[in-house]
Specification:
There is one protein chain. With about 270 residues, the chain is of the alpha/beta class. It has one domain: Spore Coat Polysaccharide Biosynthesis Protein SpsA, Chain A (Alpha-Beta Complex). It contains 9 helices and 11 strands.
Length: about 270
């Protein structure tokens, strides 16, 4: 492990995955451009990263990327973009951002990896995850959540001593694994060098044909890297937005939290301040 993996002066960046369409949203808008709190939901994720101390945010775009770029234009040079030309999974999406991370800087850069469709994310949760990551000297840290109904989420598989072993996606889970209620809400913090090296070893999933970012944690453990897990994400924060009904539910929670701080713009005015 590089000596510079996790020092308090390491640069902090973020990669936000925002390339998907969201086929169940009954709209041609990219999923992350649907409004929560009166503005594109991805804005809430970008702001949580900036408030947590990120120097810059790299947003991975794909489907109708011009709309995502427009939605985030307000952040100027704080947001950069990388293009995922094919939808080949979360691991492939992160690899699409590799050129934004010069090789010489990676060992001294910590990187949040988050999804752009999680607007209930809290800055405090990111800071808690980062604190654990830095204090433990980990190569990768993931924040988990305990929920009553884990349907649809990747499960956190632990060994007989309670230590982290791997993440299993629901599509690949056994009956016993499906019963696990500790889930992966896709909150990651990784040393950039360790992350991109592990991504080189990720294989295409035989069942789905995708490359999963979740595979890097098991690969890191096999390479004697340090992986930390912290149960830090409130169950309410990981509500999935896959339908318009889900969108309305999350929007209501977001507005209750932020009150008059949210914008009053509509779906038609996404990307405007």
């Amino acid at each position: 492990m590089a000596d510079t993996t996790n020092t308090t002066n390491a640069q902090l960046d973020a990669i936000i995955l925002a390339a998907g369409k969201g086929t169940r949203m009954e709209s041609d808008l990219p999923k992350v451009c649907h409004p929560v709190g009166g503005r594109p939901m991805v804005c809430a994720v970008v702001e949580a990263c900036l408030e947590a101390g990120c120097k810059r945010v790299v947003v991975v775009v794909g489907y109708k990327q011009e709309l995502v770029r427009e939605a985030l234009a307000r952040y100027g040079d704080l947001v950069e973009f990388a293009v995922q030309h094919e939808q080949l999974g979360t691991g492939h999406a992160v690899v699409s951002a590799v050129d934004a991370f010069p090789l010489a800087d990676r060992a001294n850069t910590n990187t949040f990896v988050l999804c752009g469709d999680g607007p209930l994310i809290r800055t405090s949760t990111l800071k808690t995850m980062l604190d654990k990551h830095v204090s433990s000297g980990a190569d990768a840290t993931l924040a988990t959540s305990q929920i009553d109904n884990p349907d649809g989420y990747g499960r956190i598989v632990r060994n007989s001593q309670g230590g982290f072993e791997r993440i299993v996606e629901q599509k690949n889970a056994t009956a016993d694994e499906l019963a696990i209620c500790e889930v992966n809400p896709s909150y990651y913090c990784m040393n950039a060098d360790s992350m991109f090296e592990a991504l080189k070893k990720v294989s295409r999933n035989e069942l789905t044909g995708e490359y999963y970012i979740t595979d890097v944690f098991e690969l890191m453990l096999k390479d004697a890297k340090r992986v930390e897990v912290i149960d830090a994400v409130p169950s309410e924060d990981i509500l999935s937005i896959n339908t318009l009904e889900h969108l309305a539910q999350v929007d209501s929670i977001y507005r209750q939290r932020h009150g008059t701080q949210v914008e009053s713009s509509s779906a038609e005015t996404e990307g405007t301040a």
